[in-house]
Amino acid sequence: MEKEFGLLRSALKNAYITDEQTAFLTKQWYIGVLARIRINAFRIELAGGMYDYRDLLSLAAASVEAEAAVGNAVYMLPSFYNHDCDPNAHIVWIENVDARMKALRDIEAGEELRICYIDASMNHGARQTLLSEGFGFQCRCLRCLSGD
Ligand SMILES: C[S@@+](CC[C@H](N)C(=O)[O-])C[C@H]1O[C@@H](n2cnc3c(N)ncnc32)[C@H](O)[C@@H]1O
């Protein structure tokens, strides 16, 4: 983090950006930006074209088969999706970095679209720990409240 912060500062200095213009660039600001990226970013995994994505099993198989994440990205609208351990929607990337949202079941008009930030197959305790430590909240979705 220290190294990246130093690189950012010197890159701006080398671009002749004045100290006055970079007064915002404190370590605290940088840490805040990293935290917001961490919480809002999606890990992009390109799924091959050989599956049809109508069911969850096909999605999972495609995800496992995808060689590796091609990167991380923050998307404006998807940043607003809240988490649920039993989500009604899922985000996929078929060919490129254009994200697509897939419904995982019928969704009522007015129902909030919720995605799962983590591996939903983990048990209750492991999910709570990961969400608390990685995303800073205690999950109170219906599944967690039921103790599952
Ligand atoms: C990607 S943002 C989602 C949008 C955010 N709720 C907002 O209003 O901008 C992730 C943050 O939303 C909150 N959040 C998401 N799902 C939640 C849930 N099931 N229970 C409580 N807080 C949640 C947490 O603060 C989490 O760090």
From TrEMBL:
CDD domains named in the record: SET_SMYD (cd20071)
Transmembrane stretches, start-end: none
Record's protein name: SET domain-containing protein
InterPro entries attached to this UniProt entry: H3K4_H4K5_MeTrfase, SET_dom, SET_dom_sf
GO CC terms, sorted: nucleus
Top-level taxonomy: Eukaryota, Viridiplantae, Streptophyta, Embryophyta, Tracheophyta
Domain SET span(s) in chain numbering: 1-118
Native source species: Nyssa sinensis
Family annotation (PROSITE patterns): SET (PS50280)
